[in-house]
Amino acid sequence: MARAAGLARLACLATALVFGSCFEGQALWGERCETDADCGPDLPCQDDGVCAVERRCSGLTFDLQDVRPQVALLLDHSQSMRRCLDDPTERERCAQAVDPPGLSRWDGLVALVHTLVPEFADRIDFAAVVFPTPTLISEQGFCNLNDNSRVPFGTEDVSAAILDAVPEDIASPPIGENPLREAWSDLFPPLEDGLLRQRAIVLVSDNPPNCPTKPKIKEDIAEKLDGEVYPLVEASFASGIPTVVVGISVMDVLAPLLAGDSMIDDVNPHEYFNALALAGGAAQAGPEHYLHLRDTAALPQVLAGLRERLAPLAEQVDACRIGIDAAPDYPNLVALDVDGRMHRADPDCDDRWAWRWRDDTHRAIELCPAACDRLHAGAIARLRFGCL
């Protein structure tokens, strides 16, 4: 008899979870309560004021900052970035303080960063690496960088921090070689809070990388390709992190094996950037798979191309779409608390304070309009995962 009664109570609870009936109290699992009478049979009101079988059930707490996508900016500050954007043969004059004949390549990069970072910083968590580190060039060689070149994710007022790290060329003249592989290292911190955040890399450079693992003297590296960068781009995309490649005044010519010509031997920069863009998974159609800031006139087009790639990431935040690293064991026993209001999933968002699963994988949720508005207004939300 006892076993039959227990099975009956379990059946009643299951029915209640689906149909919201079969008991005196009106609250279901995960909803607010004051006493056990507010909950269903065998569903007590816990000390934290929530109807739940056991308090040991896990949860995720987050705010808007926690769910923004992460985008790492890799910004080439090597000496060739002093060249004129509109005249690649002019090496220095566009970076001089007095009467420059036009924008330098670095000026073009500055224009991109100073436009896009403030535009998206409220919805995208940016980090930046400016390479190489100028203060290390005279002390340690042409390929070095350290943490002074990095603006990490989660930096307070990150927009101002990145703009400070990307000044005009007369304030910080480009210098040194291209240690892109070292700049690539440890870009993203591990995800440990149970949330999935979309991630991407934006590389802005004018030449292929040329700093090997252990450079000795400048003559050993200036005209040699670092072949280890391409596999890094492939591996990043395979792990779900695409790379958007922006080339600046990229030359479409195969460099000869000629010492002292400042070109990477036996490499066509245009073909290299094309291959890199394809490997990064964010290539554009046409003969140029990378975004090409070939001259000043191309600035609006490149800005539009970057906006096109960043906007979908920002839209996920606008719509409060949030990924989680693993589907819960009991997707029907998940509730969302925003501002002390606990709500079950509502596929149609008739309850504007509720939420819904994005698809049947149960790896992403979307907050309904009122809950989303509160998250954008600074509220802290909590997902509570049930267990039996």
From TrEMBL:
InterPro entries: vWFA_dom_sf. PROSITE patterns: PROKAR_LIPOPROTEIN. This is VWFA domain-containing protein. It comes from Nannocystis bainbridge.
